[in-house]
Design a protein that fits this description.
Blueprint lengths: L1 H21 L6 H19 L1 H19 L5 H6 L1 H19 L1
Helix pairs in contact: 1-2, 1-5, 2-3, 3-5
Pfam families: DUF7670
Organism: candidate division WOR-1 bacterium RIFOXYC2_FULL_46_14
Keywords: Membrane, Transmembrane, Transmembrane helix
C-alpha cells in the first residue's frame, strides 16, 4: 500500500515540475506524454504489480541507455533512479504476495 503512495507522490512531483518549468506549451508536449506513460504504468502496476514493476525497470534502464554521455550525472539521479526504485518495490511486493 505504501508503494502506491510513493508512486503517486513521484507522479505528482514530476507533473508539478513540468508545469512550473514549462507550463502547457508546445515545448513540453513530449514531457507531458512521458508523464502520461508513467501514469499508465502506475495504474498497470496497481493491478498487475509484477508487470508494472517490470515496465518501470525497463523504462528506467531504457532512459539510462539512451542518455549515456548526453546528460550530466544529476539527470541520471533525478530521472531513472526513481523509476528503478519504483520498479524494484512493485516487483518485491508482487513476490511477497505470491508467498
Amino acid at each position: 500500500m505504501a508503494i502506491r503512495r510513493i508512486s503517486i507522490a513521484f507522479l505528482a512531483g514530476w507533473g508539478l515540475f513540468i508545469f512550473f518549468s514549462h507550463g502547457f506549451s508546445a515545448i513540453s508536449i513530449f514531457e507531458w506524454i512521458f508523464w502520461l506513460v508513467l501514469l499508465a504504468i502506475t495504474f498497470t502496476a496497481w493491478k498487475l504489480e509484477f508487470l508494472g514493476g517490470s515496465l518501470f525497470l525497463f523504462l528506467g534502464l531504457f532512459y539510462l541507455l539512451i542518455g549515456i554521455g548526453k546528460a550530466p550525472l544529476f539527470v541520471f539521479l533525478v530521472v531513472p533512479l526513481p523509476l528503478l526504485i519504483l520498479g524494484s518495490l512493485f516487483i518485491r511486493d508482487a513476490v511477497r504476495k505470491k508467498k
